[in-house]
Design brief:
Blueprint lengths: L1 H8 L9 H9 L6 H15 L15 H13 L9 H13 L5 H9 L5 H10 L2 H14 L10 H14 L3 H10 L2 E2 H4 L3 H5 L20 H17 L20 H4 L3 H8 L6 E7 L2 E10 L39 H11 L1 H16 L32 H13 L4 H9 L28 E2 L2 H12 L5 E3 L2 E3 L13 H9 L17 H8 L1 H4 L9 H8 L3 H13 L5 H13 L1 H13 L2 H4 E2 L1
Antiparallel strand pairs: 1-3, 2-3, 4-7, 5-6
Helix pairs in contact: 1-27, 4-18, 5-7, 7-19, 8-9, 10-16, 13-15, 17-18, 17-19, 20-25, 24-25, 25-26, 25-27, 26-27
Length: about 600
Amino acid sequence: MRVLFLLTLGWLAPGQQHAQDQIDQAHRPLFQTEADKKKALSTVTADLRGGAAASMARVPRRNYIDEHIFGRMEKDRVPHAPLAGDEEFARRAYIDATGRIPSVEDVTAFLADKSPNKRENLVDKLLASDAFIDKWSYYFEDLFRAGGRMGYGLNLFHYWVREWLRLDRPYNEVATELLTGAGKTSFSVPGGLYFARDFVKAKDDPDAPDGMDLVNIPDTVDEFTITYSKVFLGLNLACISCHDGRAHLEKVNLYLTGKKREDFFRQAGFYGKTRQIMNWENGYQANQEYTVDDLAPGYDTKAESIVRIPRNGGSGKPRFILSGEEPVAGRNERDELARLMTSHLQFSRTFTNRIWAELMGFGIVEPVDDFDLDRYDPKNPPPAPWAIQPSNPALLDAMARDFQQSNYSFKKFLRRVMTSSAYQLSSKFDGTWEETYTPYYARKYVRMLSAAELHDAITIATSRPAKLASGEARVPMVQQMSEPGKADKEVKGFMRIFGQSNRDDMPKKATPSSLQAMLLMQSKIVTDRVLALEGSRVEKLLTETKTDGELIDKLFLSTISRQPTQSEKEVAGRAVGKDRRRGAENLQWALINSPEFLFNY
Protein backbone atom coordinates (compact mmCIF):
# COMPACT_ATOMS: atom_id res chain seq x y z
CA MET A 1 0.00 0.00 0.00
CA ARG A 2 2.68 2.51 1.00
CA VAL A 3 4.83 1.87 -2.10
CA LEU A 4 1.70 2.35 -4.21
CA PHE A 5 1.28 5.70 -2.47
CA LEU A 6 4.73 6.73 -3.72
CA LEU A 7 3.76 5.58 -7.22
CA THR A 8 0.51 7.53 -7.30
CA LEU A 9 2.17 10.66 -5.95
CA GLY A 10 4.61 10.43 -8.85
CA TRP A 11 7.71 10.11 -6.65
CA LEU A 12 8.45 6.50 -7.65
CA ALA A 13 7.21 6.20 -11.20
CA PRO A 14 7.49 2.83 -13.01
CA GLY A 15 10.10 2.85 -15.79
CA GLN A 16 11.85 5.86 -14.29
CA GLN A 17 14.63 6.21 -11.75
CA HIS A 18 13.22 5.67 -8.28
CA ALA A 19 14.34 7.22 -5.01
CA GLN A 20 17.03 4.60 -4.39
CA ASP A 21 18.73 5.41 -7.71
CA GLN A 22 18.65 9.09 -6.88
CA ILE A 23 20.19 8.43 -3.48
CA ASP A 24 22.95 6.38 -5.07
CA GLN A 25 23.65 9.12 -7.61
CA ALA A 26 24.00 11.68 -4.85
CA HIS A 27 26.42 9.50 -2.91
CA ARG A 28 28.53 8.15 -5.73
CA PRO A 29 30.68 11.21 -6.41
CA LEU A 30 31.57 12.13 -2.88
CA PHE A 31 35.29 11.88 -2.21
CA GLN A 32 36.05 10.84 -5.76
CA THR A 33 37.96 13.14 -8.08
CA GLU A 34 37.12 16.83 -8.19
CA ALA A 35 35.57 16.64 -11.67
CA ASP A 36 33.48 13.57 -10.84
CA LYS A 37 32.08 15.09 -7.66
CA LYS A 38 31.03 18.33 -9.29
CA LYS A 39 29.57 16.57 -12.31
CA ALA A 40 27.57 14.07 -10.28
CA LEU A 41 26.17 16.69 -7.89
CA SER A 42 25.24 18.79 -10.90
CA THR A 43 23.54 15.80 -12.52
CA VAL A 44 21.52 14.71 -9.50
CA THR A 45 20.41 18.30 -8.89
CA ALA A 46 19.25 18.58 -12.49
CA ASP A 47 17.41 15.24 -12.20
CA LEU A 48 15.61 16.26 -9.03
CA ARG A 49 15.04 19.97 -9.53
CA GLY A 50 13.54 21.17 -12.76
CA GLY A 51 10.83 23.78 -12.86
CA ALA A 52 12.10 27.35 -12.99
CA ALA A 53 13.42 29.35 -15.89
CA ALA A 54 17.11 30.17 -16.10
CA SER A 55 17.88 33.84 -15.94
CA MET A 56 20.44 36.41 -16.92
CA ALA A 57 18.59 38.98 -14.81
CA ARG A 58 20.67 40.82 -12.27
CA VAL A 59 19.97 39.63 -8.74
CA PRO A 60 20.74 41.78 -5.68
CA ARG A 61 24.44 41.67 -4.89
CA ARG A 62 24.48 41.70 -1.14
CA ASN A 63 28.20 41.31 -0.41
CA TYR A 64 31.58 40.54 -1.95
CA ILE A 65 30.62 36.87 -2.44
CA ASP A 66 27.90 37.95 -4.85
CA GLU A 67 30.26 40.33 -6.64
CA HIS A 68 32.63 37.43 -7.32
CA ILE A 69 29.96 34.83 -8.20
CA PHE A 70 27.62 36.95 -10.34
CA GLY A 71 30.32 39.17 -11.76
CA ARG A 72 32.06 36.09 -13.14
CA MET A 73 28.82 34.67 -14.57
CA GLU A 74 27.93 38.02 -16.12
CA LYS A 75 31.37 38.29 -17.69
CA ASP A 76 31.22 34.76 -19.14
CA ARG A 77 27.53 34.96 -20.15
CA VAL A 78 26.52 32.06 -17.89
CA PRO A 79 22.80 31.97 -16.96
CA HIS A 80 21.78 31.16 -13.41
CA ALA A 81 18.74 29.99 -11.48
CA PRO A 82 16.39 32.58 -9.97
CA LEU A 83 16.33 33.25 -6.25
CA ALA A 84 14.68 30.50 -4.21
CA GLY A 85 11.12 30.98 -3.03
CA ASP A 86 10.43 31.40 0.68
CA GLU A 87 9.48 27.75 1.30
CA GLU A 88 12.63 26.49 -0.43
CA PHE A 89 14.85 28.99 1.36
CA ALA A 90 13.37 28.39 4.81
CA ARG A 91 13.90 24.64 4.79
CA ARG A 92 17.41 25.04 3.36
CA ALA A 93 18.42 27.60 5.98
CA TYR A 94 17.05 25.59 8.90
CA ILE A 95 18.87 22.43 7.84
CA ASP A 96 22.17 24.17 7.03
CA ALA A 97 22.25 26.30 10.18
CA THR A 98 20.71 23.91 12.69
CA GLY A 99 20.61 20.43 11.14
CA ARG A 100 16.84 20.38 11.71
CA ILE A 101 13.80 20.81 9.51
CA PRO A 102 11.49 23.69 10.47
CA SER A 103 8.24 23.15 12.33
CA VAL A 104 4.83 23.99 10.84
CA GLU A 105 4.78 27.11 13.01
CA ASP A 106 8.25 28.11 11.81
CA VAL A 107 7.29 27.81 8.15
CA THR A 108 3.92 29.55 8.42
CA ALA A 109 5.38 32.43 10.45
CA PHE A 110 8.19 32.93 7.93
CA LEU A 111 5.78 32.85 4.97
CA ALA A 112 3.52 35.38 6.68
CA ASP A 113 6.38 37.78 7.45
CA LYS A 114 6.27 40.76 5.07
CA SER A 115 9.55 42.30 6.22
CA PRO A 116 12.02 43.01 3.38
CA ASN A 117 14.82 41.74 5.66
CA LYS A 118 13.10 38.57 6.79
CA ARG A 119 15.72 36.23 5.33
CA GLU A 120 18.56 38.01 7.09
CA ASN A 121 16.49 38.03 10.28
CA LEU A 122 15.87 34.30 9.99
CA VAL A 123 19.57 33.59 9.54
CA ASP A 124 20.35 35.67 12.65
CA LYS A 125 17.70 33.81 14.63
CA LEU A 126 19.05 30.42 13.58
CA LEU A 127 22.67 31.30 14.34
CA ALA A 128 21.63 32.37 17.84
CA SER A 129 19.72 29.14 18.57
CA ASP A 130 20.62 26.15 20.70
CA ALA A 131 19.97 23.96 17.65
CA PHE A 132 22.86 25.75 15.89
CA ILE A 133 25.13 24.65 18.76
CA ASP A 134 23.85 21.08 18.47
CA LYS A 135 24.40 20.80 14.73
CA TRP A 136 27.84 22.37 14.52
CA SER A 137 29.26 20.80 17.66
CA TYR A 138 28.32 17.45 16.09
CA TYR A 139 30.01 18.52 12.84
CA PHE A 140 33.24 19.59 14.52
CA GLU A 141 33.32 16.52 16.76
CA ASP A 142 33.13 14.40 13.60
CA LEU A 143 35.91 16.51 12.07
CA PHE A 144 38.08 16.29 15.20
CA ARG A 145 37.22 12.56 15.56
CA ALA A 146 35.94 12.91 19.10
CA GLY A 147 35.24 9.24 19.73
CA GLY A 148 36.20 6.44 22.05
CA ARG A 149 39.93 7.08 21.73
CA MET A 150 39.42 10.21 23.81
CA GLY A 151 38.46 7.95 26.72
CA TYR A 152 36.97 9.53 29.81
CA GLY A 153 37.72 13.00 28.49
CA LEU A 154 35.16 12.76 25.69
CA ASN A 155 32.38 14.53 27.58
CA LEU A 156 34.80 17.29 28.59
CA PHE A 157 35.73 17.75 24.93
CA HIS A 158 32.05 17.74 23.92
CA TYR A 159 31.14 20.55 26.29
CA TRP A 160 34.28 22.49 25.37
CA VAL A 161 33.27 22.44 21.67
CA ARG A 162 29.74 23.54 22.53
CA GLU A 163 31.05 26.39 24.63
CA TRP A 164 33.38 27.87 22.02
CA LEU A 165 30.58 27.69 19.48
CA ARG A 166 28.19 29.39 21.88
CA LEU A 167 30.71 32.17 22.51
CA ASP A 168 31.77 32.34 18.85
CA ARG A 169 35.33 32.09 20.07
CA PRO A 170 37.84 33.01 17.35
CA TYR A 171 38.67 29.86 15.40
CA ASN A 172 42.41 30.60 15.45
CA GLU A 173 42.23 30.39 19.25
CA VAL A 174 40.36 27.08 19.01
CA ALA A 175 43.03 25.65 16.71
CA THR A 176 45.76 26.97 18.99
CA GLU A 177 44.26 25.22 22.01
CA LEU A 178 43.98 21.98 20.05
CA LEU A 179 47.66 22.20 19.08
CA THR A 180 49.12 23.34 22.40
CA GLY A 181 47.07 21.72 25.18
CA ALA A 182 49.11 20.03 27.94
CA GLY A 183 48.36 18.38 31.26
CA LYS A 184 46.02 15.60 32.39
CA THR A 185 43.77 15.39 29.38
CA SER A 186 40.65 13.63 30.59
CA PHE A 187 39.87 15.95 33.46
CA SER A 188 41.36 19.37 32.83
CA VAL A 189 42.68 19.98 29.29
CA PRO A 190 40.07 19.35 26.57
CA GLY A 191 42.32 20.67 23.79
CA GLY A 192 45.05 18.18 24.68
CA LEU A 193 42.69 15.32 23.86
CA TYR A 194 43.03 16.13 20.16
CA PHE A 195 46.70 15.13 20.20
CA ALA A 196 46.17 12.35 22.71
CA ARG A 197 43.58 10.56 20.54
CA ASP A 198 46.21 9.90 17.84
CA PHE A 199 48.36 7.76 20.14
CA VAL A 200 50.20 4.79 18.65
CA LYS A 201 50.41 2.07 21.25
CA ALA A 202 53.86 0.50 21.47
CA LYS A 203 53.25 -2.43 23.82
CA ASP A 204 50.83 -3.89 26.32
CA ASP A 205 53.18 -3.91 29.29
CA PRO A 206 55.97 -1.41 29.96
CA ASP A 207 59.62 -2.16 30.51
CA ALA A 208 60.05 1.13 32.29
CA PRO A 209 58.48 1.22 35.78
CA ASP A 210 56.63 4.46 35.06
CA GLY A 211 54.99 3.10 31.89
CA MET A 212 56.45 5.85 29.70
CA ASP A 213 57.25 3.40 26.88
CA LEU A 214 53.63 2.31 26.30
CA VAL A 215 53.22 4.91 23.52
CA ASN A 216 55.45 5.18 20.46
CA ILE A 217 55.90 8.95 20.63
CA PRO A 218 57.54 9.56 17.21
CA ASP A 219 54.79 7.59 15.44
CA THR A 220 52.14 9.42 17.46
CA VAL A 221 53.66 12.75 16.45
CA ASP A 222 53.70 11.68 12.79
CA GLU A 223 50.06 10.60 12.90
CA PHE A 224 49.01 13.87 14.51
CA THR A 225 51.04 15.91 12.01
CA ILE A 226 49.10 14.26 9.20
CA THR A 227 45.83 14.87 11.06
CA TYR A 228 46.21 18.58 11.80
CA SER A 229 47.70 19.30 8.37
CA LYS A 230 44.58 17.91 6.71
CA VAL A 231 42.14 19.62 9.05
CA PHE A 232 43.77 23.03 9.44
CA LEU A 233 45.89 23.44 6.31
CA GLY A 234 44.05 21.31 3.76
CA LEU A 235 47.28 19.42 2.99
CA ASN A 236 47.59 15.65 2.86
CA LEU A 237 51.15 14.97 4.01
CA ALA A 238 50.67 11.22 4.45
CA CYS A 239 52.78 10.25 1.44
CA ILE A 240 55.80 12.35 2.33
CA SER A 241 55.74 10.95 5.87
CA CYS A 242 57.26 7.81 4.29
CA HIS A 243 59.16 8.98 1.19
CA ASP A 244 60.08 12.00 -0.90
CA GLY A 245 57.39 13.37 -3.18
CA ARG A 246 59.48 13.33 -6.34
CA ALA A 247 59.00 10.23 -8.53
CA HIS A 248 55.89 9.35 -6.53
CA LEU A 249 53.34 12.17 -6.57
CA GLU A 250 53.62 13.62 -10.09
CA LYS A 251 50.11 12.42 -10.94
CA VAL A 252 48.68 13.33 -7.54
CA ASN A 253 49.95 16.65 -6.19
CA LEU A 254 52.49 18.90 -7.90
CA TYR A 255 53.23 20.88 -4.76
CA LEU A 256 54.22 17.79 -2.80
CA THR A 257 56.55 16.57 -5.55
CA GLY A 258 58.86 19.33 -4.39
CA LYS A 259 58.82 18.14 -0.77
CA LYS A 260 61.07 15.56 0.84
CA ARG A 261 60.56 13.25 3.75
CA GLU A 262 62.88 15.50 5.71
CA ASP A 263 60.41 18.36 5.17
CA PHE A 264 57.81 16.21 6.89
CA PHE A 265 60.23 15.41 9.71
CA ARG A 266 60.83 19.11 10.24
CA GLN A 267 57.09 19.82 10.29
CA ALA A 268 56.65 17.00 12.80
CA GLY A 269 59.60 18.49 14.70
CA PHE A 270 57.30 21.11 16.24
CA TYR A 271 56.13 18.21 18.44
CA GLY A 272 59.61 16.81 18.95
CA LYS A 273 59.63 17.81 22.61
CA THR A 274 56.06 16.70 23.24
CA ARG A 275 55.37 13.52 25.14
CA GLN A 276 52.14 11.62 25.51
CA ILE A 277 52.21 9.36 28.54
CA MET A 278 49.59 6.68 28.98
CA ASN A 279 49.03 6.55 32.71
CA TRP A 280 50.17 3.36 34.46
CA GLU A 281 48.55 2.88 37.85
CA ASN A 282 49.06 0.01 40.29
CA GLY A 283 50.38 -2.28 37.57
CA TYR A 284 47.58 -1.56 35.07
CA GLN A 285 47.18 0.70 32.06
CA ALA A 286 44.85 3.60 32.62
CA ASN A 287 44.57 3.84 28.86
CA GLN A 288 41.74 6.34 28.93
CA GLU A 289 43.88 8.89 30.72
CA TYR A 290 46.94 10.63 29.34
CA THR A 291 49.43 13.25 30.36
CA VAL A 292 50.80 15.58 27.68
CA ASP A 293 53.94 17.62 28.36
CA ASP A 294 56.95 19.09 26.53
CA LEU A 295 59.90 17.41 28.24
CA ALA A 296 61.24 15.22 25.39
CA PRO A 297 64.68 15.99 23.86
CA GLY A 298 63.43 16.54 20.28
CA TYR A 299 62.22 14.70 17.18
CA ASP A 300 64.36 11.63 16.44
CA THR A 301 64.58 11.14 12.67
CA LYS A 302 65.99 7.64 13.13
CA ALA A 303 63.51 6.45 15.77
CA GLU A 304 61.94 3.03 15.41
CA SER A 305 58.55 3.03 13.67
CA ILE A 306 55.78 0.46 13.96
CA VAL A 307 53.35 2.03 11.46
CA ARG A 308 55.53 3.20 8.52
CA ILE A 309 58.80 2.41 6.79
CA PRO A 310 61.99 2.95 8.84
CA ARG A 311 63.03 6.54 9.36
CA ASN A 312 66.17 7.36 7.40
CA GLY A 313 67.57 10.31 9.33
CA GLY A 314 67.93 13.97 8.50
CA SER A 315 67.12 17.11 10.40
CA GLY A 316 64.27 17.10 12.89
CA LYS A 317 64.63 20.79 13.67
CA PRO A 318 61.18 22.41 13.39
CA ARG A 319 60.43 24.30 10.19
CA PHE A 320 56.98 25.32 8.93
CA ILE A 321 56.35 23.52 5.67
CA LEU A 322 54.50 26.39 3.97
CA SER A 323 56.92 29.22 4.64
CA GLY A 324 60.20 27.64 5.75
CA GLU A 325 60.04 29.63 9.00
CA GLU A 326 61.54 28.21 12.16
CA PRO A 327 60.31 28.83 15.70
CA VAL A 328 61.70 31.79 17.59
CA ALA A 329 64.48 30.55 19.85
CA GLY A 330 63.48 30.06 23.45
CA ARG A 331 59.74 29.86 22.78
CA ASN A 332 57.57 26.78 23.14
CA GLU A 333 57.68 25.10 19.74
CA ARG A 334 54.02 24.08 19.70
CA ASP A 335 53.04 27.66 20.51
CA GLU A 336 55.18 28.74 17.57
CA LEU A 337 53.51 26.21 15.28
CA ALA A 338 50.09 27.56 16.24
CA ARG A 339 51.25 31.13 15.60
CA LEU A 340 52.77 30.35 12.20
CA MET A 341 49.90 28.18 11.08
CA THR A 342 46.89 30.27 12.11
CA SER A 343 48.37 33.50 10.74
CA HIS A 344 49.02 31.93 7.32
CA LEU A 345 46.35 32.57 4.66
CA GLN A 346 46.17 28.83 3.95
CA PHE A 347 44.64 28.23 7.40
CA SER A 348 41.78 30.59 6.57
CA ARG A 349 41.47 29.29 3.00
CA THR A 350 41.10 25.76 4.33
CA PHE A 351 38.44 26.66 6.86
CA THR A 352 36.32 28.84 4.58
CA ASN A 353 36.59 26.31 1.74
CA ARG A 354 35.47 23.51 4.06
CA ILE A 355 32.42 25.43 5.30
CA TRP A 356 31.62 26.67 1.77
CA ALA A 357 31.52 23.02 0.67
CA GLU A 358 29.06 22.19 3.46
CA LEU A 359 26.73 25.02 2.45
CA MET A 360 27.14 25.03 -1.33
CA GLY A 361 27.57 21.34 -2.21
CA PHE A 362 31.28 21.23 -3.02
CA GLY A 363 34.33 23.28 -2.27
CA ILE A 364 36.08 25.84 -4.43
CA VAL A 365 38.97 23.40 -3.97
CA GLU A 366 38.18 19.68 -3.99
CA PRO A 367 38.98 17.53 -2.12
CA VAL A 368 38.82 20.00 0.76
CA ASP A 369 41.78 18.41 2.55
CA ASP A 370 44.03 18.02 -0.48
CA PHE A 371 45.05 21.43 -1.80
CA ASP A 372 47.72 21.44 -4.50
CA LEU A 373 49.33 24.83 -3.98
CA ASP A 374 51.32 24.62 -7.24
CA ARG A 375 47.98 24.56 -9.09
CA TYR A 376 46.43 27.41 -7.14
CA ASP A 377 47.50 30.55 -8.99
CA PRO A 378 45.79 31.09 -12.38
CA LYS A 379 48.47 33.68 -13.26
CA ASN A 380 51.09 30.94 -13.13
CA PRO A 381 49.34 27.91 -14.63
CA PRO A 382 50.87 24.47 -14.07
CA PRO A 383 52.29 22.43 -16.94
CA ALA A 384 49.94 20.29 -19.03
CA PRO A 385 47.89 18.22 -18.42
CA TRP A 386 47.28 19.83 -15.03
CA ALA A 387 44.53 22.41 -14.54
CA ILE A 388 44.19 25.16 -11.98
CA GLN A 389 42.68 23.49 -8.93
CA PRO A 390 40.37 26.14 -7.41
CA SER A 391 37.25 26.97 -9.41
CA ASN A 392 37.33 30.57 -8.13
CA PRO A 393 40.64 31.40 -6.39
CA ALA A 394 39.84 35.11 -6.15
CA LEU A 395 36.66 34.37 -4.20
CA LEU A 396 38.37 31.85 -1.92
CA ASP A 397 41.15 34.29 -1.10
CA ALA A 398 38.59 37.02 -0.47
CA MET A 399 36.70 34.76 1.93
CA ALA A 400 39.94 33.81 3.68
CA ARG A 401 40.94 37.44 4.19
CA ASP A 402 37.45 38.37 5.35
CA PHE A 403 37.62 35.52 7.87
CA GLN A 404 40.92 36.85 9.18
CA GLN A 405 39.63 40.43 9.37
CA SER A 406 36.48 39.34 11.22
CA ASN A 407 38.67 37.88 13.98
CA TYR A 408 38.16 34.32 12.73
CA SER A 409 34.45 34.40 13.58
CA PHE A 410 32.66 31.26 12.44
CA LYS A 411 29.21 32.81 12.85
CA LYS A 412 30.09 35.92 10.86
CA PHE A 413 31.38 33.79 8.00
CA LEU A 414 28.27 31.59 8.03
CA ARG A 415 26.10 34.68 8.00
CA ARG A 416 28.10 36.16 5.11
CA VAL A 417 27.45 33.08 2.97
CA MET A 418 23.84 32.45 3.99
CA THR A 419 22.73 36.03 3.38
CA SER A 420 24.33 36.17 -0.07
CA SER A 421 22.23 35.84 -3.20
CA ALA A 422 24.62 33.10 -4.32
CA TYR A 423 23.47 30.91 -1.43
CA GLN A 424 19.84 31.89 -1.98
CA LEU A 425 19.59 30.80 -5.63
CA SER A 426 17.00 28.14 -6.31
CA SER A 427 18.08 24.60 -7.04
CA LYS A 428 15.50 24.67 -9.85
CA PHE A 429 16.87 25.46 -13.31
CA ASP A 430 14.58 24.67 -16.22
CA GLY A 431 16.75 25.99 -18.99
CA THR A 432 19.32 23.88 -20.82
CA TRP A 433 21.85 23.04 -18.13
CA GLU A 434 25.40 22.85 -19.43
CA GLU A 435 28.08 21.03 -17.46
CA THR A 436 30.35 24.05 -17.94
CA TYR A 437 28.01 26.04 -15.64
CA THR A 438 28.75 23.82 -12.64
CA PRO A 439 31.86 25.53 -11.16
CA TYR A 440 30.12 28.91 -11.44
CA TYR A 441 27.57 27.88 -8.76
CA ALA A 442 24.86 28.91 -11.20
CA ARG A 443 22.24 27.11 -9.11
CA LYS A 444 22.03 25.76 -5.57
CA TYR A 445 23.12 22.12 -5.56
CA VAL A 446 21.16 19.60 -3.56
CA ARG A 447 22.82 17.53 -0.89
CA MET A 448 21.62 14.45 0.90
CA LEU A 449 21.02 14.94 4.61
CA SER A 450 23.74 13.54 6.83
CA ALA A 451 22.92 10.47 8.90
CA ALA A 452 22.37 12.58 12.03
CA GLU A 453 20.31 15.19 10.17
CA LEU A 454 18.14 12.49 8.61
CA HIS A 455 17.45 10.79 11.94
CA ASP A 456 16.61 14.09 13.60
CA ALA A 457 14.43 15.20 10.68
CA ILE A 458 12.38 12.02 11.13
CA THR A 459 12.17 12.75 14.85
CA ILE A 460 10.89 16.30 14.25
CA ALA A 461 8.52 15.37 11.42
CA THR A 462 6.87 12.59 13.42
CA SER A 463 7.09 14.38 16.80
CA ARG A 464 8.49 11.17 18.31
CA PRO A 465 11.72 12.07 20.15
CA ALA A 466 14.29 9.42 20.89
CA LYS A 467 15.91 8.79 24.29
CA LEU A 468 19.61 8.77 23.54
CA ALA A 469 22.53 8.69 25.98
CA SER A 470 24.79 11.73 26.12
CA GLY A 471 27.08 11.50 29.10
CA GLU A 472 24.79 11.14 32.11
CA ALA A 473 21.82 12.72 30.31
CA ARG A 474 19.19 11.52 27.85
CA VAL A 475 18.59 13.60 24.73
CA PRO A 476 15.95 13.44 21.96
CA MET A 477 18.23 14.23 18.99
CA VAL A 478 21.29 12.44 17.68
CA GLN A 479 22.99 15.79 17.09
CA GLN A 480 22.83 16.45 20.83
CA MET A 481 24.85 13.31 21.63
CA SER A 482 28.45 13.50 22.79
CA GLU A 483 29.18 10.06 21.30
CA PRO A 484 26.93 8.66 18.56
CA GLY A 485 28.51 5.25 19.05
CA LYS A 486 26.54 5.02 22.31
CA ALA A 487 23.17 5.09 20.51
CA ASP A 488 20.93 2.04 20.76
CA LYS A 489 21.30 -0.74 18.22
CA GLU A 490 18.46 0.41 15.94
CA VAL A 491 19.65 4.02 15.75
CA LYS A 492 23.33 3.10 15.45
CA GLY A 493 22.63 0.70 12.58
CA PHE A 494 20.51 3.31 10.81
CA MET A 495 23.24 5.91 11.21
CA ARG A 496 25.99 3.61 10.00
CA ILE A 497 24.16 2.75 6.77
CA PHE A 498 23.59 6.44 6.07
CA GLY A 499 27.27 7.24 6.52
CA GLN A 500 27.86 8.22 10.13
CA SER A 501 31.57 8.54 10.87
CA ASN A 502 33.01 6.10 13.38
CA ARG A 503 35.16 9.02 14.63
CA ASP A 504 38.27 6.89 14.34
CA ASP A 505 38.83 7.87 10.70
CA MET A 506 38.42 11.22 8.98
CA PRO A 507 34.72 11.79 8.20
CA LYS A 508 33.48 11.11 4.70
CA LYS A 509 30.18 10.86 2.95
CA ALA A 510 28.29 7.61 2.59
CA THR A 511 29.21 5.25 -0.23
CA PRO A 512 26.47 4.05 -2.61
CA SER A 513 24.26 1.44 -0.97
CA SER A 514 20.98 -0.16 -1.97
CA LEU A 515 20.38 -0.68 1.75
CA GLN A 516 19.67 3.02 2.26
CA ALA A 517 16.35 3.23 0.39
CA MET A 518 15.31 -0.19 1.69
CA LEU A 519 16.13 0.78 5.26
CA LEU A 520 14.21 4.04 5.07
CA MET A 521 11.16 2.13 3.90
CA GLN A 522 11.40 -0.60 6.55
CA SER A 523 13.24 0.75 9.61
CA LYS A 524 11.23 1.05 12.81
CA ILE A 525 12.71 4.54 13.12
CA VAL A 526 10.26 5.42 10.34
CA THR A 527 7.54 2.77 10.39
CA ASP A 528 6.85 2.97 14.15
CA ARG A 529 7.03 6.75 14.36
CA VAL A 530 4.49 7.45 11.63
CA LEU A 531 1.84 5.45 13.50
CA ALA A 532 -0.95 7.33 15.28
CA LEU A 533 0.40 6.33 18.70
CA GLU A 534 2.21 7.78 21.72
CA GLY A 535 1.68 11.44 20.90
CA SER A 536 2.98 11.19 17.34
CA ARG A 537 2.46 13.92 14.77
CA VAL A 538 -0.20 11.84 13.00
CA GLU A 539 -2.06 11.13 16.24
CA LYS A 540 -2.10 14.82 17.18
CA LEU A 541 -3.21 15.98 13.75
CA LEU A 542 -6.01 13.43 13.57
CA THR A 543 -7.43 15.02 16.72
CA GLU A 544 -6.57 18.67 16.05
CA THR A 545 -7.60 19.04 12.39
CA LYS A 546 -11.25 19.41 11.43
CA THR A 547 -10.99 18.55 7.73
CA ASP A 548 -8.97 16.13 5.62
CA GLY A 549 -7.57 19.05 3.65
CA GLU A 550 -6.20 20.66 6.80
CA LEU A 551 -4.72 17.33 7.90
CA ILE A 552 -2.96 16.87 4.55
CA ASP A 553 -1.65 20.45 4.50
CA LYS A 554 -0.12 20.12 7.95
CA LEU A 555 1.45 16.74 7.20
CA PHE A 556 3.15 18.24 4.15
CA LEU A 557 4.30 21.31 6.08
CA SER A 558 5.58 19.31 9.06
CA THR A 559 7.44 16.80 6.87
CA ILE A 560 8.72 18.52 3.72
CA SER A 561 8.11 22.16 4.73
CA ARG A 562 5.76 23.13 1.92
CA GLN A 563 2.11 23.04 0.91
CA PRO A 564 0.99 20.18 -1.35
CA THR A 565 0.29 20.79 -5.01
CA GLN A 566 -3.26 20.34 -6.18
CA SER A 567 -2.53 16.93 -7.70
CA GLU A 568 -0.74 15.77 -4.53
CA LYS A 569 -3.68 16.93 -2.45
CA GLU A 570 -6.10 14.98 -4.62
CA VAL A 571 -4.10 11.74 -4.33
CA ALA A 572 -3.65 12.16 -0.59
CA GLY A 573 -7.31 13.12 -0.19
CA ARG A 574 -8.51 9.88 -1.76
CA ALA A 575 -6.32 7.80 0.61
CA VAL A 576 -7.29 9.76 3.71
CA GLY A 577 -10.95 9.74 2.68
CA LYS A 578 -11.02 5.93 2.63
CA ASP A 579 -9.40 5.50 6.05
CA ARG A 580 -8.41 8.71 7.84
CA ARG A 581 -5.98 7.13 10.29
CA ARG A 582 -4.34 4.65 7.93
CA GLY A 583 -4.29 7.17 5.11
CA ALA A 584 -2.52 9.77 7.28
CA GLU A 585 0.06 7.24 8.46
CA ASN A 586 0.75 6.13 4.89
CA LEU A 587 0.97 9.72 3.67
CA GLN A 588 3.65 10.66 6.19
CA TRP A 589 5.56 7.43 5.46
CA ALA A 590 5.49 8.31 1.74
CA LEU A 591 6.63 11.88 2.42
CA ILE A 592 9.58 10.67 4.50
CA ASN A 593 10.54 8.28 1.70
CA SER A 594 10.40 10.99 -0.96
CA PRO A 595 13.56 12.56 -2.42
CA GLU A 596 12.25 15.90 -1.17
CA PHE A 597 12.71 14.72 2.42
CA LEU A 598 16.08 13.05 1.86
CA PHE A 599 17.74 16.02 0.20
CA ASN A 600 18.34 19.59 1.23
CA TYR A 601 17.34 21.74 -1.72
